[in-house]
Amino acid sequence: MADVNKVVLAYSGGLDTSVILKWLQDTYNCEVVTFTADLGQGEEVEPARAKAQAMGVKEIYIDDLREEFVRDFVFPMFRANTVYEGEYLLGTSIARPLIAKRLIEIANETGADAISHGATGKGNDQVRFELGAYALKPGVKVIAPWREWDLLSREKLMDYAEKHGIPIERHGKKKSPYSMDANLLHISYEGGVLEDTWTEHEEDMWRWTVSPEKAPDTPQYLELTYRNGDIVAIDGVEMTPATVLATLNRIGGEHGIGRLDIVENRYVGMKSRGCYETPGGTIMLRAHRAIESITLDREVAHLKDELMPKYASLIYTGYWWSPERLMLQQMIDASQAHVNGVVRLKLYKGNVIVTGRKSDESLFDANIATFEEDGGAYNQADAAGFIKLNALRMRIAANKGRTLI
Amino acid sequence: MADVNKVVLAYSGGLDTSVILKWLQDTYNCEVVTFTADLGQGEEVEPARAKAQAMGVKEIYIDDLREEFVRDFVFPMFRANTVYEGEYLLGTSIARPLIAKRLIEIANETGADAISHGATGKGNDQVRFELGAYALKPGVKVIAPWREWDLLSREKLMDYAEKHGIPIERHGKKKSPYSMDANLLHISYEGGVLEDTWTEHEEDMWRWTVSPEKAPDTPQYLELTYRNGDIVAIDGVEMTPATVLATLNRIGGEHGIGRLDIVENRYVGMKSRGCYETPGGTIMLRAHRAIESITLDREVAHLKDELMPKYASLIYTGYWWSPERLMLQQMIDASQAHVNGVVRLKLYKGNVIVTGRKSDESLFDANIATFEEDGGAYNQADAAGFIKLNALRMRIAANKGRTLI
Amino acid sequence: MADVNKVVLAYSGGLDTSVILKWLQDTYNCEVVTFTADLGQGEEVEPARAKAQAMGVKEIYIDDLREEFVRDFVFPMFRANTVYEGEYLLGTSIARPLIAKRLIEIANETGADAISHGATGKGNDQVRFELGAYALKPGVKVIAPWREWDLLSREKLMDYAEKHGIPIERHGKKKSPYSMDANLLHISYEGGVLEDTWTEHEEDMWRWTVSPEKAPDTPQYLELTYRNGDIVAIDGVEMTPATVLATLNRIGGEHGIGRLDIVENRYVGMKSRGCYETPGGTIMLRAHRAIESITLDREVAHLKDELMPKYASLIYTGYWWSPERLMLQQMIDASQAHVNGVVRLKLYKGNVIVTGRKSDESLFDANIATFEEDGGAYNQADAAGFIKLNALRMRIAANKGRTLI
Amino acid sequence: MADVNKVVLAYSGGLDTSVILKWLQDTYNCEVVTFTADLGQGEEVEPARAKAQAMGVKEIYIDDLREEFVRDFVFPMFRANTVYEGEYLLGTSIARPLIAKRLIEIANETGADAISHGATGKGNDQVRFELGAYALKPGVKVIAPWREWDLLSREKLMDYAEKHGIPIERHGKKKSPYSMDANLLHISYEGGVLEDTWTEHEEDMWRWTVSPEKAPDTPQYLELTYRNGDIVAIDGVEMTPATVLATLNRIGGEHGIGRLDIVENRYVGMKSRGCYETPGGTIMLRAHRAIESITLDREVAHLKDELMPKYASLIYTGYWWSPERLMLQQMIDASQAHVNGVVRLKLYKGNVIVTGRKSDESLFDANIATFEEDGGAYNQADAAGFIKLNALRMRIAANKGRTLI
């Protein structure tokens, strides 16, 4: 067992990380620094302070990271139209590198030599936390209690809590049967009935969105203003990044937008089913493609599309803090210099419908695209030569007897 | 001007290709063979026979290609989850190589030395027709009247028709202001008000789908059975490929599924706005990803995702009949050997919601994925080593003073 | 410690694996089956039999795998012009999956529940052996003594050998200071003075090739005949795959061909310097590109080039027995259908010079390529349209004020 | 025929472009501005001035572009280890965009509305010149005489010259039978006996290098110093980019380095055989990989390798002045921040042998890489977990009955 003096714990204030806090103190006989972040998960973070104090913690960090999260992590990711395995908008993945970064910053500030987190040994999050931590502070010790202790069932955890006087809140409402994670970008659900891939998800699982069935019968129009690939205003009102996303979450949620039920491939090797609500992100993905469709060069757009799966995998697997992600980001960011303009959307019962896009930097040229006479803007005869030379290699091959069918 | 003896014309029976037919006869003083295909565009093809005969055509081909179209073109394309520029399902693109192939087969049967088509000199379709034709018969002559003649406005075309006694049908209903193309996979709209990217598409433009607003208030569940990556049954009823697609079009259309309004990048260099209705295809894309999610290996899936944009571009730009498309297809098809099983969907007002997927060849292992105790199926301690070695290169770099932030 | 009944050991007969044999017997109290392969490493394999017998081994496998190695592993790899990190021809990497396969086959035949090997915990080979083993027999136990025992220095190993009566051969010649690996494709050197990347490799390290300085002053010409991408004859004499490679090794070695000194990135995360002699492989790589240059379609060739780094990484990191490598292989093999013909080479003091290539399936068309008048085979005017349309997107952008400089 | 007032001609002073000069004056009745560049082709550029004056040209540009060429074109390209189709170092391709840029700059300075060049309608160079010109000045007219006139044989060209009093220099030495192009990066040969792919190139064709057979018997050692991926000093002597390349050309040429004989795929569709001498470039490619091998992160290096074929194709096909090339360049340049250090090479009779590389920013860690005891720098036990989790997906598949063989 590593010799640890002081450990920074990613602390939610909930039961699991409270048990971890106690367990760290007892097992490592070390000082614990708690770090609680407001990433827009929709729960109060201040209660964590009293709980930590009650367990004797002296250095308590409670940070509102919402703006940083959206500005430096969510927005850059959406510049690439990032989707993992064709569906997943990476809501959990993109929050982890920010937490890793803060854990290390706090470790440096407090002189801690270790960090700890509540992620299990089967999931992606442990990888994301730890790769980030090692990349930013290579000598740091990492304590992952779920990989070390023997409290592997809920009963044992409860027993431990009871035995050590850790308060177990018993709300009137039933404990959710799902393992959940939330931040400004999404809320996720795993476990429970979802562990059978054929069983339909339950309607009362969803927390952020109404069902399309319950959404308003009247569509809502929305205009999103882009600057360098990021949304800076909604319906003409300039907003900070976090406000943009919160607003889109609220509106999207009202219209039943952004539910997803998938089976994904975890980095540690197994398939896993997850349900996600990403109302704002779902809107942003569609809208960003729309503004790019008139402002990006074709080959730049295609190159981005070809690199996107790789970029998405890097984020999913925890390599945000890696030189290859940074290298890709430089290219992605550079591509956004002209991605300015406005996209008009219509939201209706789960649908995000693009109804218009405009830009001072639009590359759309109606005069050339038109089916009407264009006054010589485009010489149709050029197409013959274009086709002939593009076909040449295939004609030579066919002439020499190669067959395709 | 090329010396032409006999030309096979892709003939719809409509005004434009009727004018072309006449123009070919007059201009090239050659025999014309007409070829009219039923690709599921929803219009009668037989009327083309009488029209062609009336213009003196002796060799008339009218083919029902619906099954071949879906089985050999649409289904293979969907095995790759193919989407062009993140949105477009390639409904027009995928029909062109089949037409090109038939044009050449008929040219070979009838001893024709040329082919002709009604695509303009500004679009992608001329490229798709001609690349296919050249690849399959390298010495063929291609006559593209829109690139050659001076009938470049609708008025001139009408004048020509009138002057040459080509009947202009004047329905009660107003001529559509859109340039349209339809086949079993989709119907497309271009031109008219769509030439302003900011103007919303008009509700009465759409022909195949009701709007989500008008779709039924009751969702419909659907079970799709896959064999080697293709749908072979709907709700347990085995069907031919064309029947599968026609059925999904009907159901999808009833539920307002599959409308799309995008600006795309044409191969000939300009941006162009198109609206598309692809009800069945929209369902198939979502469902195919779902069945793959439990039956495909992770790295195979990711490799497919990385190659998809390239494959989509090849189809969009007309390289179906190319050795590189065939090479990719071999890999794609090979990946589908285990893509068998059933996907359950819920359709509701424009939404395609996956609610379950199962397969005898599922790679989902609930025992390993579970958050509950798994009886040793997975050793959580392995994760520590996994992370440590994946982090090693970044730790070494950080130790040597490299910084990421 | 795992409970093991019978283990198949990859046994060279040398000191290290002899110690492992003994250590397995003592530590696991299990039966050991030895497997010794002739992969063309140039050492006798039969002596391993007596040594194994002397240690009480009852089931002894000694296999000549040279033909299988070249036919099913080396040749398929060279079809892709495979090079890792721009330089390394993967000589060690490509042999491991064959050994893994045989270990598992023998385990199945002998009812063994475990395999063992002599690769260290720092290298790539452990990964290659074990990924292959797990992929082919998922429940197999793997014993990697170098990761388990405490005999981590040469002294301890020698002590252990002496203590347990394992004969230590002391040749007259000094023990090589290098860690070496050899098979028909190459011989490799690591360690010793090579651990300083600035120090020049020593001339007397190399074993298979003369130095270019010592190579003959007279060049040698060679004609290689290809069938489906593989060499089937040298100077017109048909040969088996292993004979082809052995012959090229001999000739290449005489001419000082195929030495390499690089720093490579290991899968487990660190950089490592290696020196390699790959005389036959160096010739094959150059020649294969030459035969492909006249027989492969351009876009097929480019697609292969784009996928090669991925394919090379899969082999380097041990994923030969993975579905994604198999999927890529199908595409690569399919591309070789027309890769038939003859390449003429000139070998001289380390140089492999292509001097000619011909094929009945050549796509080279002198009539079209010529700078002389071509009698209309190619219409130069086509180029204007080709260029104009390829430039269109950039012209539109420039017209709208976008700047590139 | 386009209406042209003033045209800037890429003028070498040789026979072909002199004929073009005259032909432009006569055919277009326009003013001609000549532009002659010293790109290190090894011929005097000043004589072009008198010839142009003699034909009445008033605006004559003669530029020494050698430093700009190497600094802004050659060096950036080598940062990516760029090779087209596995062999070609793009010596001709990389010079064209600089000429295109200067043609447009001069057109802007002189108020010319057209440019002209002497490239034929069958080659890549016309594309490279014209794509660059259109991208930088979208409205420019391009006159490509070889695609327009009827002087398609050498005889007709000579006749035209004689008739119009254009001096035809008749050296004592026989006119080369090859079409050649030279600049500081290389000299190329096409045509003549090379049009038969089986015929060996002739020894007396080569102009820049001695044959390996004639190279010195004594090897030469060389130390190259890198700063941000570019060579800044040779054997410790700081030099400008053009001097670096000229020096490496001289030394490499003396040692018989950098000859190449290939069949390549032209952008316009046919295969073409070319011979190239690139002595300095051949040295630079090998050396750059060597300095990157110790200073680049593994995944950054692999990403570069995966993107290189695309980047090479962009340069080969003339898209230097495109947004996608610029986007890739940003990523490539960013990757070179730490590519600093020294590479030691040994040159001998055509061989470029790396014998050492060192860097203050080396990521090579002898302590971790060593086969000796490392004092705990690396925990070998980590490898077990690393392998286990990397194998997990394949083990699950095998457990469920999937087979690989």
From TrEMBL, chains A, B, C, D:
Q: Which residues form the Arginosuccinate synthase-like N-terminal domain?
A: 6-167
A GO term for molecular function: argininosuccinate synthase activity
Main location per UniProt? cytoplasm
- UniProt cross-references to PROSITE patterns, sorted A to Z: ARGININOSUCCIN_SYN_1 (PS00564), ARGININOSUCCIN_SYN_2 (PS00565)
Write down the chemical reaction(s) this protein catalyses. Answer: L-citrulline + L-aspartate + ATP = 2-(N(omega)-L-arginino)succinate + AMP + diphosphate + H(+)
Residues annotated as binding L-citrulline are 88, 93, 124, 128, 179, 188, 264, 276
Localization annotation: Cytoplasm
Pathway recorded for this protein: Amino-acid biosynthesis; L-arginine biosynthesis; L-arginine from L-ornithine and carbamoyl phosphate: step 2/3
Task: Provide the Arginosuccinate synthase C-terminal domain boundaries.
Answer: 178-396
Q: Which cellular component terms (GO) are annotated to the entry?
A: cytoplasm
* Binding, L-aspartate: 120, 124-125
Give the GO terms filed under biological process for this record.
argininosuccinate metabolic process; L-arginine biosynthetic process; urea cycle
Q: Which residues bind ATP?
A: 10-18, 37, 118
Q: Which InterPro entries match?
A: Arginosuc_syn_C (IPR048268), Arginosuc_syn_N (IPR048267), Arginosuc_synth (IPR001518), Arginosuc_synth_CS (IPR018223), Arginosuc_synth_type_1_subfam (IPR023434), AS_cat/multimer_dom_body (IPR024074), Rossmann-like_a/b/a_fold (IPR014729)
Name the enzyme's class. ligase
Question: Per the UniProt record, which EC number(s) apply here?
Answer: 6.3.4.5
User: What are the record keywords, sorted?
Assistant: Amino-acid biosynthesis, Arginine biosynthesis, ATP-binding, Cytoplasm, Ligase, Nucleotide-binding
Pfam family of this protein, just one?
Arginosuc_synth
Q: Which domain of life is it from?
A: Bacteria
Recorded family membership: Belongs to the argininosuccinate synthase family. Type 1 subfamily.
Give the NCBIfam families listed for this entry. argG, PRK00509.1
Matches recorded under PANTHER family? ARGININOSUCCINATE SYNTHASE
Q: Could you describe the subunit structure of this protein? A: Homotetramer.
Protein name per UniProt? Argininosuccinate synthase
Organism, as annotated: Pseudomonas saponiphila
The gene is: argG
